[in-house]
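Researcher: I've got a protein sequence and the SMILES for calcium ion. Could you write out the 3D structure of the bound complex as structure tokens? I'd like something to compare against our soaking experiments later this week.
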Amino acid sequence: MLNNRLGIELAYFNRTRTGIAASRDLFLANLTAITPGQENLNTDKNRGVDGSISWRDRVGEVSYNIGGNFSYGRSITGFRYNRIYSSDFNRWRGIVNGNGNNFAADRLNGGPFQLVTVGQFQSWEDIATYPIDQDGKGNQTFRPGDFKFKDTNGDGFITDEDRIISGYGLNTANNGNPAPALLNFGFNFGANYKNFNFSVDFAGGTMFTFDQSGFLREWEPNKNTSQYLFDNASYYSDIWDRNSPIIVGKYPLLLQQSAIVGSTLTHTGYQTNVTYVKMRNVEIGYTIPYTVLKKFGVSNFKVYVSGQNVLQISNMPANIDAEIASSGGNAMPSPRILTAGVQVKF
Ligand SMILES: [Ca+2]
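Model: Sure. Here is the predicted complex with calcium ion in place.
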């Protein structure tokens, strides 16, 4: 298009898988020791769109190219064999036998049902006068810095029934580690001027949830925690005096207890809906002209510096690698590689 300067591609996909194996709900006495076999009962759907655009041209002695691409996809729960729900509320949530997964038919697969965090208690007085009872005990188990939750059904209490779909999917099959971004994008730029060349490309993603766990969330007995959590948690103004005022940070006090601070129900207090972009590759090079090289018997001589994963801009806690596979943050990030080199061909 336009003398081959402009390129555009757009693709839409809509895939339905049928015959996914599942077991029928059968009620057999445990004594029979029989479990129903799996049959091809269910369906799943995946829909999405991806595209790319590129442009290359020349301005005076500079030739350049610029491009971008994206892909967006979502999975949707399809037909589900007539499951038996314990209540209409669980039917709406798609919860079967206490399984927290979202199995409701024709719903976008996404965030788990969880409490939504709406703030933090700022002081003891704030706790004493807070109109919503979060623990069924008049909030006496809370301390300044602990989370406040949304009373979705407005009954004045925080219970299981206040949970709603919130955030994007967490990879429950993988310890709650982040699921892949629903929207991925990239863009690139390259230019040549005389004997100089420059190229850079960026890659990023958005629409996924990072749920801090482990080192980024807890301070349990005989366990380490992260500097990030220490730096951002609430703390006693006098560490030797438990009656001293609590300075409220971004997270609750770090207490050595096994229960998750604030609520035993999952909530959004430690979650971030992440958007990130990384400078994936960058290179600048200079090629010595052949007219100069010829007399040395060299056909090609190029010097360059290049980098991979040079920088990341994101809203990740502590700006840790958004592509990290661990919700505890304790995994190897993509390495940052800087290279300086000389290419010689004879
Ligand atoms: Ca409620």
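Model: The chain has a mean pLDDT of 86. The longest helix spans residues 88-93.
Researcher: Great, I'll pass this along to the crystallography team.
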